């Protein structure tokens, strides 16, 4: 049995178990977008937050291409991708799972002390601890510890050992105690008005309407996603960036809308920082 056949057979088995799967290139990278989708030329899918292939026949858009449909997995475009694959990946969030990726011996030792036992899978540098439940994916919550759940992929390294347990609060709390460095921290990113004056936007309805409209503007964009995200961030900061209205939750909502259209966290952070610089906030 060839390597490609083995990867495809593994993918079909995982799909039967309910894990949305996708091929990985050598180096653990996702298959690149097809020419029709490169650079967001296709406008991206309406809802990138859900697993499933885009409208083109190729395995595009990284984690969002993951699927459990055997007809898609064995289609001609995907068979070609399997022939050059270097592994099989799955979308943990699409299967209702969270993977605690422990990349160092010290990280593994910490997990054994701090986290409840669950299904454990050996990796080349450490272990994957898999829990039942989903959460936001964040890298670097502790040295050598990444959380992989929604909007990411994890490499399949086998079924592991031990029974799977529910996602514990100790894991969820990691993103509160140590958010990813690339995520803006609003206490510093959006200062209160000089002199501590009363914010004129304290009306919850006014602020909520503005954030909702911004989310809709990003979601409705069918082309020029980068530009739309930047202009929307600029508008939000222009209205609310100097008065202390915005909270981290508001910015996370804007980032989530942008990432649902295919923007990376890096692009979201760059657009936010550029908008702040332009406005001097």
Give the topology.
Blueprint: H1 3-16, E1 21-25, E2 29-30, H2 70-73, H3 76-83, E3 87-90, E4 97-102, H4 105-114, E5 119-122, E6 127-132, E7 138-142, E8 145-148, E9 154-155, H5 169-172, H6 174-177, H7 186-189, H8 204-220, H9 225-240, H10 248-260, H11 265-279
Antiparallel strand pairs: 1-2, 1-3, 3-9, 4-6, 4-8, 5-6, 7-8
Helix pairs in contact: 8-9, 8-10, 9-11
Throw out a few tags for this protein.
39% helix; 281 residues; globular; 11 helices; alpha+beta
Overall description:
The protein has 281 residues and is α+β, with helices and mostly antiparallel strands. Helix content is 39%, strand content 14%. The protein has eleven helices and nine strands. It has a five-stranded antiparallel β-sheet. A four-stranded antiparallel β-sheet has the order 2-1-3-9. The protein is globular and about 60 Å long. Mean pLDDT is 81; it is low at 177-198.
